[in-house]
Write a structure and sequence with these properties.
The chain is of the alpha/beta class. It has five helices and 14 strands. The strands form three sheets. Strands 1, 7, 9, 10, 11, 12, 13 and 14 form an eight-stranded mixed beta sheet that branches. It has a three-stranded mixed beta sheet with strand order 2-3-8, with helices on one face.
Length: about 260
């Protein structure tokens, strides 16, 4: 049964405004952004760029443009009344949230934050994700050109199913040298509908670069212990990539996800 606070309008304006603000989403919490094709793009360097090289006839930086990825933001209170809308519009401006119009309705999106949010790659998209940077270099503007790689994502997310499957670790993973966290999603998986956030975390598995192996942190499991054994076994060869890229700060975190 839904309960309505019938006397809300009689509260002092300052208190009503505080309630509206407290109902807004916390964008500092990690969200899950669904992978979509089209983010690998060339940037043509100019002499003022710090990585411009004299004598390089191409001077192209091949970037994974994570800023092209957007995530839904659920703001149902926007439609409540004029007072709420005023509060939310101010919050939207201060949080780089965009208002978009499609199919005769308003919806809200924000760009992926590379330091907080994770790029979620569904099982059925792993091959496309792996092949996209290669295929893109065979398009007319890049054929035969020399490019430098630039990626800035620090967090990825995969289904727990990946660790039980025959799928190999995508080779493109080696290009993302700044990744610090891999979320392993158990239970319900993100889809194209709505805003998806990390709801619960289990104990993490850390990469110990001194002994070059994964180690299990103390804490509670959020899934049966088999998942942890699968990850620690490292049959996917993730440890090999970490060693080759000299990545010392890395953890694997089982999580559950929820639609807001």
């Amino acid at each position: 049964m839904a309960y309505i606070f019938a006397r809300f309008s009689e509260l002092p304006p300052e208190l009503r405004n505080q309630i509206w603000r407290q109902a807004l989403p916390d964008l500092t919490e990690p969200g899950l952004c669904l992978y979509k094709k089209g983010c690998w793009q060339p940037r043509y360097l100019i002499p003022s760029d710090p990585d411009y090289l004299e004598g390089d006839l191409d001077n192209i930086r091949y970037e994974f443009r994570h800023d092209m990825l957007t995530m839904p933001v659920e703001l149902p209170q926007f439609f409540a009344n004029r007072e709420a809308r005023s509060i939310i519009l101010d919050w939207i401006r201060n949080n780089d949230v965009e208002i978009r119009y499609s199919e005769d309705r308003i919806h809200f999106v924000r760009r992926l934050n590379s330091k907080v949010d994770a790029l979620y790659v569904p099982m059925e998209k792993l091959l496309e994700f792996d092949m996209e940077p290669v295929d893109r270099q065979f398009e007319p503007d890049l054929v035969g050109r020399t490019v430098g790689i630039a990626t800035h994502l620090t967090r990825f997310a995969l289904s727990a199913e990946f660790f039980y499957s025959e799928e190999l670790l995508p080779e493109v993973w080696e290009l993302f040298t700044r990744v610090e966290v891999l979320y392993v999603v158990v239970g319900e998986h993100p889809d194209m509908q709505g805003q998806w956030d990390i709801q619960q975390t289990g104990r993490a598995i850390f990469w110990n670069d001194e002994v070059e192996k994964f180690e299990l942190q103390d804490g509670d499991d959020i899934y049966d212990g088999r998942l942890y054994h699968q990850i620690l076994d490292d049959s996917k060869g993730l440890g090999k990539v970490l060693k080759e890229n000299a990545m010392s700060k890395f953890k694997i975190q089982p999580v559950s996800a929820a639609r807001r």
